[in-house]
Design goal:
heterodimer, A: mainly alpha, MetI-like fold, two-stranded antiparallel sheet, 15 helices, disordered N terminus, B: mainly alpha, 12 helices
Chain lengths: ~325, ~325
């Protein structure tokens, strides 16, 4: 036996590393592949910042002229106030989140706390299909189903009045159906899978002991969800909402197709309006490289870039808090 | 111990309801909440069901073999063959670049990355690209490839922009698939004397194949439907009648060439809608959207099916 082991010295058992590996080539190659994302982001930032500041540097517009409500690129002295677009993006996104957050958190709670296995195995794949539906398809659904529905159903002024008190709420009706509400509704469905899946992960991350502990104290499931689960998972749900917000603010084609594209500040949810992304999509093809009009569009894309990078940092801050506490 | 046992004994004597804290009101609230939560789940299915039904009805009488295989026409319904071809072509071209780079990047993140500043920077870049709007990625492609490189609107510019946009997803899905391989497998391989790279190549990657393929298919589904990235990179013009016998890939008139504009199916839907011309516009868009949705369904179910079959095969052997 002893002679057998000595006939196969263990040192020879280790495979001889190939030449490539001795040069540490595999590690270098996979590193370059991963690090390529840093290069892409850096280049993207440099190019968009460069182009986005041309309006100030080359065309001599001041920052004050940009944050103005007047957008008139065809005037003798063109005005590029991008405030309507920024506000438009903000209100459409806010509307979408207002609709989508309760629904998405509800679906997440359903999947994590309530649903039996069979229901989960239907709803989860359904959400994955939602993610896959292209944005132009959502936009087309908005145009062919949602917009005509809104226009037909609420075409008169919408007034709520009570006896004695009188009118407590009034709003112009939908003219064409292309509106703030249509944009927010389409977006709310598009961000639903994002908010749902991230909140679902947050709920699943809550230790099982907290649930059983609460239930053992005699609380109902809903009391447990309200007083234990949601507070414990709050930072995760917040992350989900921020990610949904980023997606909604950056969505271009679906919104552009249903929002009506009028460069004014919206007065009511029934009115047409515009956003940063829709105006860029619409105007980019009509402008010439280097003219102030196009430079203003680049400035708008710089605003979008700033929004998205801010949200990345925001998510990190939220998560760091969670790790810290 | 004894004190505890004693107190339990005393309270059990008083015949307590174990759910003492739950009043009638809170039980009612609990029932209501359960109904509402089931309702949200049902709503998701209802919306998806009606969407599929809507497109099935809208596409009825539009989608046929000739719709898929014919060229677009001004006077009749025509077909969408060239744009469908472009979608498939762009998908192949993008995946040709994105899959290797994403897989290798995933290997680095799962197997090599230490807890240091470089890894932190890669993670930050990954998250940043994921959250940058697709239209901005498209505009980046417009400056870099179309203007600075003077390529004009080309399939290659579009495919590279799509790669940029989907690289984080592909990398993250690969990393997850590789991390899911149990540590024991690596230890066993290393204990047998294999080097780290041999372990990765012959043990970790083969075991991760079901997850990797799922990742590839999910990425492919996203690439197939993407339009905003392509508007200003691969172009939005009406495609010419392609001559598939022209195999010269350097010739911009060949449908095989990456140096030609390539309007895809998604972009075509956007274009038709914004131009709003043609008697058959609505039917063509309905039919095209139905095809896009079917592809999404196929990609999704395919990813699920392939993943399940492969993992069963691998775990059985």
């Amino acid at each position: 036996m002893a002679s057998l082991t000595s006939a196969y010295p263990t040192s020879k058992l280790r495979a001889k590393p190939g030449l490539l590996e001795r040069l540490d080539l595999p590690r270098r190659v996979v590193f370059v592949a991963a690090a390529s994302m840093i290069i892409v982001v850096a280049m993207l930032m440099i190019f968009i910042v460069w182009q986005g500041t041309q309006l100030f540097v080359k065309d001599g517009y001041s920052l004050g002229a940009i944050f103005d409500a007047k957008w008139d690129p065809l005037a003798d002295t063109p005005e590029f106030g991008i405030l309507p677009f920024i506000l438009g993006t903000i209100v459409v996104t806010a509307g979408a989140l207002l609709i989508s957050t309760p629904l998405s958190v509800g679906v997440a709670l359903f999947l994590s706390e309530v649903a039996p296995k069979w229901a989960k195995s239907i709803v989860q794949p359904a959400l994955e299909i939602f993610v896959g539906i292209p944005s132009v398809v959502w936009g087309w659904l908005g145009i062919t189903v949602l917009v005509p529905f809104l226009a037909d159903t609420f075409n008169g002024p919408i007034v709520i009045s009570l006896p004695i008190v009188g009118t407590i709420f009034s709003m112009p009706g939908f003219l064409t159906g292309f509106s703030w509400l249509a944009g927010s509704l389409v977006l709310s469905i598009m961000v639903l899978p994002t908010i749902t899946s991230v909140s679902y992960d947050a709920f699943r991350a809550v230790p099982q002991e907290l649930r059983t502990g609460s239930l053992a104290l005699g609380t109902t499931r809903w009391q447990m969800i309200r007083h234990i689960l949601i507070p414990s998972a709050l930072s995760g749900v917040l992350t989900a909402v921020v990610l949904g917000m980023t997606r909604a603010a950056g969505e271009a084609l679906a919104v552009q197709m249903v929002i009506g594209n009028s460069p004014t500040l919206p007065e009511a949810i029934t009115q047409p309006m515009t956003t940063l992304t829709s105006q860029i999509t619409l105007d980019m093809g009509n402008t010439v490289f280097g003219e102030p009009w196009q430079d203003a569009l680049w400035t708008m894309s710089l605003v979008l870039l700033v929004i998205s990078i801010t949200s990345v940092v925001l998510v990190r801050v939220i998560n760091k808090r969670r790790m810290g506490s | 111990m004894t004190a505890n046992a004693g107190s339990i004994g005393r309270s059990s004597g008083a015949k307590p309801s174990l759910k003492g804290k739950a009043s009638r009101g809170s039980i009612l609230a609990d029932r209501a909440a359960t109904v509402v939560l089931w309702g949200t789940g049902a709503l998701v299915l209802l919306i998806l069901g009606s969407i599929i039904l809507h497109f099935a009805m809208a596409a009825w009488g539009v989608v046929s073999l000739s719709f898929i295989l014919d060229n677009p026409s001004q006077t009749t319904l025509g077909g969408i063959m060239p744009v469908l071809w472009n979608s498939i072509y762009m998908l192949a071209l993008t995946m040709l670049i994105a899959v290797p780079v994403g897989l290798l990047g995933g290997i680095y993140m799962a197997e090599y990355a230490g807890d240091n500043i470089v890894t932190g920077a890669i993670r930050f870049a990954e998250e940043s690209i994921s959250s940058v709007p697709s239209i901005v990625v498209g505009l980046f492609g417009l400056i870099l490839f179309v203007d600075d490189f003077h390529w004009g609107f080309t399939a290659l510019a579009g495919a590279l922009a799509l790669t940029f946009f989907n690289l984080p997803l592909m990398t993250r899905l690969s990393e997850q698939a590789l991390r899911a391989v149990p540590q024991d497998e690596r230890s066993a391989s290393l204990a047998l004397g294999a080097t780290k790279w041999q372990t990765i190549r012959h043990v970790v990657v083969p075991l991760a194949i079901p997850g990797l393929i799922t990742g590839v298919i999910l990425t492919a589904g996203r690439v197939f439907g993407e339009a905003a990235v392509l508007l200003f990179t691969a172009g939005i013009g009406t495609p010419p009648h392609y001559n598939f016998m022209n195999l010269d890939i350097t010739n911009p008139t060949s449908p095989w060439s990456p140096f030609r504009p390539a309007t895809t199916l998604s972009v075509y839907i956007y274009k038709l809608n914004s131009e709003g011309l043609g008697a058959f516009k609505n039917q063509i868009v309905d039919g095209s959207a139905a095809i896009l949705i079917s592809m999404v369904l196929i990609f999704n179910l395919g990813a699920r099916f392939v993943g399940r079959v492969l993992s069963r095969k691998l775990t059985a052997s």
